[in-house]
């Protein structure tokens, strides 16, 4: 009987799989692809354009592209042309397995597996044609690519032949990008801000204006690798030129949905363009680029300079000196439809502390809780007590405070119940047991009285 039950169970399982395959195969191809894409994103974390530049930057060659020979698998391809130039697409074990089920699954999984293309370069030796290497990777169908990451190393100094090789390389990279006609996201990591990337910039701009590329990231690899406070701002003409060309194009500004900027500095002209032009943005991230302007130090937060943007729902400011806490209040009020706001390591030491809002401030007609809906998420990292009190005027359903000083958070919350109106969940960092026992009880009492869930599950975004 045991054997018969086992065989019956196997038969039922086989029948179930057959039914699932039949039903799945009867679905429209677009829906089948969408299902596999969803599973792939959930299990393997493929980029979808919502990149945040967290953690220490590493070139892909430092992670998993160590082999110096051509590799090919059913679901992925990797071509390392020399020690200095790598062209690769991510391979996914789950997709490999699923692709073995049937030819139909293979075709769908192959479509999804090549969503991401990385081009990694560090200039040391002569480079062959990247375009030829790309064409040699026969498994890679350009129309499958949705995400492109370009890692540009430092350009070699004279002799003159090295300049010619750099220009040829940039032209090849631009050609490869142009072949991927369905790309939606492009991330450009630069190490040499003076190296000519005009061809790459022109190709990116064309694809944005055509409405293909909607998400752009311009990243300084040096900043992502090293978190020091000062950087040479005189040698970033090329990334500034790329950003300027995008912001100067009306077509590009109408098409762009996400913009991520990690740069040493942007000048006043670029700041004004950023304020006025890209009114179709859904997500904007600025890291470090807003440094002190000695001519107009508060330029980014003159609200009259910002165009209205009913599309912007997510704003992230990281290490921006001029993003003082008290200037965030009118900024949040200006972007009425903003849903998520992250403020991390912003401000400058010479900005003197501001007095907290007076008692009863939340009842005034022109305060944020009375003029706009609450944010869905407010994330604050590395804020002083007065900055927390000031930003406590921002209404938000969920508040995350990434600060190891729980005593400071507890004291701020015990001073007034008006702080962080509309909040129903407060997330803080996990603390030591003895520390929680002393100060955590204060915070727990306040949160219990205000019916706020206190969760110790926050994490530091930018160590």
At a glance:
The chain is 38% helix and 17% strand. It has 16 helices and 15 strands. It has helices at 2-25, 29-44, 93-99, 103-113, 130-136, 160-179, 198-209, 221-225, 237-248, 250-255, 268-276, 325-334, 368-371, 385-391, 406-415, 433-449, and strands at residues 71-73, 76-80, 85-89, 116-121, 147-152, 185-190, 215-220, 258-262, 283-287, 314-318, 340-344, 375-381, 396-402, 425-428, 453-455.
Describe the protein in words:
It is a single chain. This protein starts with a helix and ends in an 8-residue tail after the last strand. Helices cover 38% and strands 17% of the residues. It has helices spanning 2-25, 29-44, 93-99, 103-113, 130-136, 160-179, 198-209, 221-225, 237-248, 250-255, 268-276, 325-334, 368-371, 385-391, 406-415, 433-449, and strands at 71-73, 76-80, 85-89, 116-121, 147-152, 185-190, 215-220, 258-262, 283-287, 314-318, 340-344, 375-381, 396-402, 425-428, 453-455. It is globular and about 65 Å long. Strands 1-2-3-4-5-6-7-8-9-10-11-12-13-14-15 form a 15-stranded mixed β-sheet. Helix 16 (433-449) links the parallel strand 14 (425-428) and strand 15. It has 16 helices and 15 strands. Helix 6 (160-179) runs parallel beside helix 7 (198-209) and helix 12 (325-334) runs parallel beside helix 14 (385-391). It has 463 residues and is of the alpha/beta class.
């Amino acid at each position: 009987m045991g054997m018969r039950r086992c065989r019956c169970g196997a038969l039922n399982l086989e029948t179930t799989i057959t039914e699932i395959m039949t039903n799945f195969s009867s679905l429209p191809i677009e829906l089948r692809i969408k299902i596999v894409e969803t599973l792939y994103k959930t299990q393997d974390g493929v980029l979808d354009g919502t990149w945040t530049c967290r953690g220490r930057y590493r070139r892909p060659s430092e992670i998993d592209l160590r082999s110096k020979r051509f590799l090919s698998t059913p679901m992925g391809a990797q071509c390392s042309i020399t020690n200095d130039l790598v062209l690769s697409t991510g391979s996914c074990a789950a997709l490999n397995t699923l692709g073995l089920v049937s030819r139909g699954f293979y075709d769908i999984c192959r479509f999804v597996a090549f969503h991401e293309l990385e081009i990694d370069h560090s200039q040391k030796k002569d480079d062959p044609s990247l375009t030829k290497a790309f064409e040699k990777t026969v498994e890679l169908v350009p129309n499958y690519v949705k995400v492109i990451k370009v890692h540009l190393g430092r350009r070699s100094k004279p002799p003159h032949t090295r300049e010619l090789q750099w220009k040829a390389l940039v032209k090849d990279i631009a050609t490869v990008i142009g072949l991927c006609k369905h790309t939606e996201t492009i991330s450009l990591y630069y190490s040499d801000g003076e190296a000519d990337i005009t061809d790459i910039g022109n190709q990116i701009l064309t694809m944005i204006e055509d409405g293909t590329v909607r998400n752009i990231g311009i990243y300084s690899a040096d900043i992502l690798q090293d978190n020091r406070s000062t950087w040479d701002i005189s040698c970033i003409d090329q990334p500034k030129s790329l950003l300027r060309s995008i912001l100067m194009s009306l077509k590009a500004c109408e098409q762009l949905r996400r913009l991520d900027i990690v740069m040493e500095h942007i000048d006043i002209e670029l700041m004004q363009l950023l304020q006025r032009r890209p009114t179709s943005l859904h997500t904007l991230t600025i890291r470090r680029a807003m440094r002190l302007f000695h001519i107009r130090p508060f330029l980014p937060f003159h609200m009259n300079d910002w165009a209205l943007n009913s599309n912007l729902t997510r704003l992230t400011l990281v290490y921006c000196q001029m993003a003082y806490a008290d200037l965030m209040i009118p900024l949040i009020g200006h972007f009425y439809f903003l849903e998520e706001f992250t403020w991390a390591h912003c401000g400058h030491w010479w900005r003197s502390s501001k007095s907290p809002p007076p008692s009863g401030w939340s009842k005034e007609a022109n305060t944020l809780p009375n003029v706009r809906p609450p944010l869905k998420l407010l994330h604050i990292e590395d804020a002083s007590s007065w900055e927390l009190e000031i930003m406590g005027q921002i209404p938000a359903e969920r508040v995350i405070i990434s600060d190891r000083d729980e005593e400071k958070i507890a004291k701020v919350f015990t001073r007034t119940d008006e702080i962080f109106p509309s909040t129903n969940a407060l997330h803080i960092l996990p603390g030591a047991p003895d520390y929680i026992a002393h100060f955590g009880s204060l915070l727990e009492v306040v949160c219990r009285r205000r019916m706020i869930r206190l969760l110790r599950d926050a994490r530091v975004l930018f160590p």
